[in-house]
Input
Amino acid sequence: MRKLAAGNWKMNGTQAALAEVSALAQANPAPGCDVLLCPPATLIARMADLARGTAIRVGGQDCHAKASGAHTGDISAEMLVDSGASHVILGHSERRTDHGETDAQVHAKAVAAIKAGLTAIICIGETEAERDAGRTLDVVGTQLHGSVPADATAAHLVIAYEPVWAIGTGRTPTLAEIADVHAFLRARLTARIGAQAANVPLLYGGSVKPSNATEIFAIPHVDGALVGGASLKAADFGAIIAALSAA
Ligand SMILES: O=C(CO)COP(=O)(O)O
Output
């Protein structure tokens, strides 16, 4: 399958930050993997304009489950498509924490996103307390089962495993721990959506940097990364793209 380097800008970036997109496109005219940037909603349309004709694709960081209506402050999947987005991140741990999003809500958003033609990047991951209690596989298995629509097709689905305690902390699981979780997720995804699970990219996320990307991308069933802080600068994200292309 095609590998995916995805950047999540979170709540970072104003128009000035769009210079990084042009720099990234120039430095990586023909990357050996898919490249996606998910900026704040305010930048999606401008970024999509800038990225047209390059290898960079643009995604949202959330969408509402409904197509339109009285939902102040929300954005629908159709609106993301209209802005030039091809993907949307759903169920990121920051949304699960800040906005109380449940697996059922993430599932409903994923159904809406896929119906609108987007690829849903569904995020799952355990907290540090859950890992310490030996519940990692339980937790991510339950999240996966509850969040992923059973009829999702490989063309419109990406799973991102992001241990909550590894996000923005500079800490990561061991390579063996990531390997265990990704092998488990491939099996659970096969139970959920069938044989095409083999073609769904499984991304690792949480403190991915140029310095650790190569060893993480060598792990079986790691098909790319969802990158936060290191996706904000073209030089750092470009190095991660190069590591994935070489994997
Ligand atoms: O949450 C993340 C991506 O969605 C990971 O963030 P960091 O790469 O900054 O740890």
